[in-house]
Amino acid sequence: MHAWLCENPVGVDALQWKELPTPQPKAGEVLVEIKAASLNFPDLLIVQNKYQHKPPLPFVPGSEYAGVVAAVGEGVTHLKVGQNVACLSGTGGFGTHTLAPAQLCMPLPPGFPFVDAAAFIMIYATSHHALVDRAQLKAGETVLVLGAAGGVGTSAIQIAKAMGARVIAAASTDEKCALCRSIGADATINYTQHPVPTAFRDAVKAATDGKGPDVIYDPVGGDFAEPAFRSIAWRGRYLVVGFAAGPIPSLPLNLALLKGASIVGVFWGDYSRREPKANAAMMQELARWYGEGKVKPVIDRTMPMAQLKEAYARMGSREVKGKLVLVNP
């Protein structure tokens, strides 16, 4: 097998494409022949030694991937050799093969292509957990999605629309705003043209007839957090999803008091570990929604696995709309 090996987590440039022994699965594991792997923001942080999970060195990055089961370990009964699966295991995806815990593998129904499957679990699980479980979103409510043209942002738009909500999507270019409208957003805000804090808050106020959004989905953080939270509706729910902008913001807690609003943490990874039955039911619902056409990953482009460093550079340039997916021949 071949894989991108991280022997020193000082950044993307230190990754090396190496030939490695093809491993055999131990009890509870499967060997997956990787067909496609998506690039997520944590995949950048982990090779910079900035992610909360720090795997022992050396490791192969690539948190999310899809492929074919090539071998099964002892005790694995729900998966078979030749079965198509998707997996989010945190590492291992940027190569030709990897070992995966069998319980983390999602069997793919017929007609679920590898590229979509490799871009599915992280973004849709995060957004479903955020909007359905944590925000208790109701039909007719308004959701403001920040960073709306990215992977989690596009998934949040689709899930909110599937639940009957009105969606305002905030993104940084007219092209990204057009993408958001094409997948269901009811209104868009180009925050380059409506910069934070004042112009952005005015745009949110105008888009909600002065009421403010009932739910704010924020994977961005940074300078957007406080002006977004100041715009929230009475009894609104502010979802803390991530900090793609870099700085972790501080919010004045008097705003929560004045608006009767909730600041709600979203950590799907721990939810899946602590509440596995609820998580499994959620994933079944998401797979059903995919089959019904309610959700479908927005694929920015596919690139050969050998071009991983170029893919990282594209993601770092903020050009990506939806998800980047690496594919093996």
UniProtKB/TrEMBL annotation:
Domain of life: Bacteria
UniProt xrefs under Pfam families: ADH_N, ADH_zinc_N
Matches recorded under Gene3D superfamilies: Medium-chain alcohol dehydrogenases, catalytic domain (3.90.180.10), NAD(P)-binding Rossmann-like Domain (3.40.50.720)
SUPFAM superfamilies documented for this protein: GroES-like, NAD(P)-binding Rossmann-fold domains
UniProt cross-references to InterPro entries, sorted A to Z: ADH-like_C, ADH-like_N, ER, GroES-like_sf, NAD(P)-bd_dom_sf, Quin_OxRdtase/zeta-crystal_CS, Zn-ADH-like_protein
GO molecular function, a single term: zinc ion binding
Domain Enoyl reductase (ER) stretches: 11-326
Annotated PANTHER family: QUINONE OXIDOREDUCTASE-LIKE PROTEIN 2, SHORT-CHAIN DEHYDROGENASE/REDUCTASE
Protein name: NADPH:quinone oxidoreductase family protein
Organism: Ramlibacter cellulosilyticus
